[in-house]
Amino acid sequence: MISQVHLTRLKLYKDKRIKHYSDLGISIRSMASKTQVGFVGLGNMGNPMAKNLIKHGYPVIASDVFPESCKELQELGAQILDSPADVADKADRIITMLPSSPNVIDVYTGPNGILKKVKKGSLLIDSSTIDPAVSKDMAVAAEKLGAVFMDAPVSGGVGAATSGKLTFMVGGPEEEFNAAKELLSCMGANVVYCGQVGTGQAAKICNNMLLAIGMIGTAETMNLGIRLGLDPKLLAKILNMSSGRCWSSDTYNPVPGVMEGVPSANNYQGGFGTTLMAKDLGLAQYTATNTKTPVPLGSLAHQIYRMMCARGYASKDFSSVFQFLREEEGQ
């Protein structure tokens, strides 16, 4: 059965607002048109993501709560508007990249939110990492207005966002996946369909819990090796050709001087903030409690990152756990 949203899109197609569709009941949205795309949230991740859309020829209409975040994008030709509602009034494909669940709720359902002026048939893609339950709530609210909401959180960090090599984990109606993939492929190397709304968030939460555990393990291992007299570059080399190898050791090493182009080489500036990692681990704890899933290492990782936030590491990259452990040994 074709949903009311699809019937709306079919009408839009007939009215020439959508130029192409394929397979009855599948997405009716154009897979090739370079019509304008809305983007809300131009932080460390959103800014380079929006730039990649522009590089691929999409006119971008953007908004951010901090006007200074918009300047660079405006210089590249993006149109900057005052609110998410204004963006929804101009574009029927919108991507959001926001820090937390409350931000997403406000941007979509607040007094100046997207759903205040959303057009029927619009495709709304949220790449924030939030509670899966919030994604489901937003999807229900959007559907009531004739729009489609999909969750599409990312993995890869600022570096991958800049190079267009993010991994997107997508949840939502399967018939809309190709329409979402058209845009997401401009910003990522991998776009994976996970299932219905909320499953993208579930995959991201699981990934980040493992990432935190792996980073702490790598930091502990490197610190122990250094205290035992090993050269950190040599130790990293050995780990990366052995069974202990992981992303935190070979791509994002937390020890200053081991790798170039990573936050540990820049006093842990940039990258993925400790506050955000603590937030994601909090989501993992919440969902683990709700599903009665034992996550002892995830719980310990959450405690460590919360402690780091209280000890002055909140704005530093999450790999600064190495520095945190080094300072702890002196107490």
* Count of strand segments: 9
Query: How many angstroms separate the termini?
Result: 65 Å
Outline the low-pLDDT stretches.
13-32
CATH architecture of the largest domain: 3-Layer(aba) Sandwich
Average of per-residue pLDDT values: 91
CATH class of the largest domain: Alpha Beta
Tally of alpha and pi helices: 14
Overall geometry comes to: globular
Instruction: Provide the CATH topology of the largest domain.
Output: Rossmann fold
CATH superfamily of the largest domain: NAD(P)-binding Rossmann-like Domain
**Fraction of residues in helices?**
40-55%
Sheet with the most strands, sense and barrel status: 6 strands, parallel
Could you explain the architecture of this structure?
This protein has about 325 residues and is an alpha/beta fold. The chain has two domains: about 5-195, Rossmann fold (3-Layer(aba) Sandwich), CATH 3.40.50.720; about 205-325, N-(1-d-carboxylethyl)-l-norvaline Dehydrogenase, domain 2 (Orthogonal Bundle), CATH 1.10.1040.10. It is about 45% helix and about 10% strand. It contains 14 helices and nine strands. It has helices spanning about 5-15, 45-55, 70-75, 85-90, 100-110, 130-145, 155-165, 175-185, 200-225, 230-240, 245-250, 275-290, 295-315, 320-330, and strands spanning about 35-40, 60-65, 80, 95, 125, 150, 155, 165-170, 190-195. The chain has a six-stranded parallel sheet with strand order 3-2-1-4-5-6, sandwiched between helices. Strands 7-8-9 form a three-stranded mixed sheet. The chain is globular and about 65 Å long. The model is unreliable at about 15-30 (pLDDT under 50). Its EC number is 1.1.1.31. Pfam families: NAD_binding_11, NAD_binding_2. Pathway: Amino-acid degradation; L-valine degradation. This is 3-hydroxyisobutyrate dehydrogenase. InterPro entries: 3-OH-isobutyrate_DH-rel_CS, 6-PGluconate_DH-like_C_sf, 6PGD_dom2, 6PGDH_NADP-bd, HIBADH, HIBADH-like_NADP-bd, HIBADH-related, NAD(P)-bd_dom_sf.
